């Protein structure tokens, strides 16, 4: 029993140090090597949320947001609150990059539930909330502006129609005047 415990302990200790190797590759912007490294870790032990988190973060840095979401979603199997907070934060950023602010807000909120003191998640949450409110206000302003423009267009059409009617009346009067005048022959 003691031997099994030592083997399991050594295995998790090696995973912890091997995570640092992947992080060093990530930190040095050697993203392809980092992904390959994390893939090897994942293939050797499928339940390594840290490796999935590392792979997801690296995929994010490469701009491969779909792969990032897949890896980060797999990493959510962790019970560690601090890691879960980071995963939610990264998923929120990924959705923001994919221009899905509703889902981004949802995940920043989840990150804040995991760690209410997380200033980065709070900032991103508040920023997106503010931007959504601004977008809604801009849309409302455009709609009001569109209504005003429609009213202006209607007024312009009414003025144009009135001018056409006045022109027709003037032409009729002119014709009547011309008919009433008798031209004398000057030969």
List the defining traits of the structure above.
single chain; Serine Threonine Protein Phosphatase 5, Tetratricopeptide repeat; about 190 residues; mainly alpha; 7 helices
Summarize the structure.
This protein has 187 residues and is an all-alpha fold.
Describe the structure.
By secondary structure, this protein is an all-alpha fold. It is built from seven helices and no strands. The model is unreliable at 4-18 (pLDDT under 50).
Describe the secondary structure blueprint for this structure.
Layout: H1 2-27, H2 31-44, H3 49-62, H4 65-75, H5 81-97, H6 101-114, H7 119-180
CATH class category of one domain: Mainly Alpha
CATH homologous superfamily heading of one domain: Tetratricopeptide repeat domain
Q: Could you say what the CATH architecture of one domain is?
A: Alpha Horseshoe
Low-pLDDT segments: 4-18
């Amino acid at each position: 029993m003691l031997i099994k415990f030592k083997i399991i302990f050594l295995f998790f200790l090696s995973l912890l140090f091997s995570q640092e190797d992947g992080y060093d590759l990530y930190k040095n912007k050697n993203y392809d090597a980092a992904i390959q490294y994390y893939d090897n870790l994942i293939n050797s032990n499928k339940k390594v949320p840290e490796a999935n988190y590392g792979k997801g973060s690296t995929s994010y840095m490469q701009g491969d947001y779909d792969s990032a979401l897949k890896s980060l979603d797999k990493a959510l199997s962790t019970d560690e609150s601090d890691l879960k907070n980071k995963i939610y934060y990264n998923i929120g950023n990924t959705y923001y990059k994919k221009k899905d602010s509703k889902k981004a807000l949802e995940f920043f909120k989840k990150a804040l539930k995991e760690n209410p003191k997380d200033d980065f998640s709070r900032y991103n949450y508040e920023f997106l909330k503010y931007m959504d409110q601004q977008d809604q206000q801009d849309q409302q302003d455009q709609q009001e502006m569109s209504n005003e423009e429609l009213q202006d267009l209607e007024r312009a059409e009414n003025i144009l129609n009135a001018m056409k009617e006045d022109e027709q009346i003037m032409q009729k009067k002119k014709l009547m005047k011309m008919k009433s005048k008798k031209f004398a022959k000057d030969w």
